From TrEMBL:
Designated name of the protein: Maleylacetate reductase
Fe-containing alcohol dehydrogenase-like C-terminal domain residues: 164-345
PANTHER family attached to this UniProt entry: ALCOHOL DEHYDROGENASE (PTHR11496), ALCOHOL DEHYDROGENASE 4 (PTHR11496:SF102)
Source organism per UniProt: Pseudonocardia yunnanensis
Ranges where the Alcohol dehydrogenase iron-type/glycerol dehydrogenase GldA domain occurs: 10-152
EC number: 1.3.1.32
Enzyme's top EC category: oxidoreductase
Residues annotated as transmembrane: none
Record-linked SUPFAM superfamilies: Dehydroquinate synthase-like (SSF56796)
Amino acid sequence: MREFVYETMPGRVVFGSGTIGRVGEEVERLGCGRVLVLATPGQMEQAEALRERLGWLAVGVFGEARMHTPVETTAQAVEVALGLGADCTVAIGGGSTIGLGKAVSLRAGLPQVVVPTTYAGSEVTPVLGETHNGRKITVRDPAVLPRTVIYDVDLTLTLSASLTATSGLNAMAHAVEALWAKDANPITSLLAGQAIRAFATALPRLACAPDDRDARAEALYGAWLAGTCLATVGMALHHKLCHVLGGAFDLPHSETHAVVLPHVVAFNAPAAPSAMDAIAAALGTSDATTGLIDLRQRLGVPGSLCELGMPESGIERAADLATTDTYWNPRPITRDAAQELIAGAWAGAPPDQYSSRTS
Ligand code: NAD
């Protein structure tokens, strides 16, 4: 008999096309009426358009969201929010902007409506990663969970081909790790399989036709499912490695996930056979690792950490950092095995070599 614990995250999801038009009613539904819109400098146009659409409900726009949520930026945003008397935030953007909304919420207690425009999945997690003096700290607190998520397929049409591919593979990584999670349960495994299937279908179509709305909708749906997996069960070696690599070498977030994922899948394969079967089935291939590599190659995504700018001299340090703390992984990893795996990902080597190692 299977025993499990499943905890749902509270939150309301509005999904569709043109749903940006519903932000105002969703804000009012929360009893709010003084919105501070959050965005990155690159998405100010979308943020200003939203402010205009919100009319009297909006009190301002803060357009300085940054990757990795530096606490200094959050302090500025909190000051602006309090100065304007905002009673909620609406973050429009990817994981970086949503991270800022969470960080503001943690300090100022403002409820959040979020409008995700990438596939990162942060919108449905109670997790916030913030950078203090160059060190990224992760906080898990139900207080940072957005109240309402508005998925608008139309807003993802402007995602570049490269961010579409890497952000999709980043989301797929949440689903893959959910399948071998220590606290995996039948519900998240269902969500994970569906998420992988959605991206395996949508990403190749988007690589040829970025404005294919049906494929965009499929990918955004996959992002929600994968984000829900990330929110619900514990992640393992893959997320640990990407966190270490991103933090230590300032590597781009979603590209790092895209490079590392097949290596971790190959490493974990001997210890997680049913997860491998589920991944392969969702990808429509006979083998999880080669299926992921084929997909990545079809999408034209970089295949090595070297291409992302990681110095070869950093491999040993990354292996040290990745094995300093103990954490659960279906296949325990030694420092030497971590070094071998990171060296393989650095060089973009075929990952089949890890299966013969004993740990
Ligand atoms: P991002 O938010 O940094 O976005 C990358 C760039 O793309 C930004 O300049 C952004 O403005 C732009 N962009 C986003 N959507 C766009 C669109 N539709 N059209 C045009 N440009 C667009 O990237 P990301 O990968 O979404 O997020 C990465 C960050 O999110 C990392 O800091 C990561 O740690 C965090 N994250 C957190 C969680 C969590 O649960 N806490 C989950 C996933 C990611």
